[in-house]
Design goal:
The protein has 82 residues and is mostly beta strands. It has strands at residues 5-10, 21-26, 32-36, 39-44, 47-52, 58-64, 70-76, 79-81.
């Protein structure tokens, strides 16, 4: 899986337009990863960052370990990648 890039920080993953927000993983430091609509996000103590992968239409982070490594999948023009 290619490296994801983090977007601008804020207090919510995609603001008021998020119709579906799910937390998928949390590590011992309380860092949370999940999805909001088709965006992946990571929450470092209340600061949310969107996760993007070039060419992806959906980013789906599923878990985060105690070294802050995120694992998940994404959808691009070639289908799903894990």
């Amino acid at each position: 899986m290619p490296n994801a890039t983090l977007g601008s920080s804020g207090t919510s993953p995609v603001g008021a337009c998020a119709s579906s927000t799910e937390a998928h993983g949390i590590n011992n430091a309380g860092v949370i990863v999940g999805t909001a609509n088709n965006y992946g996000f990571i929450d470092f103590g209340g600061q949310f960052f969107l996760m993007g992968i070039d060419g992806a239409t959906v980013v789906n982070p599923m878990t985060i370990n105690n070294a802050d490594t995120v694992v998940g999948s994404y959808w691009g023009s070639q289908g799903r990648h894990v």
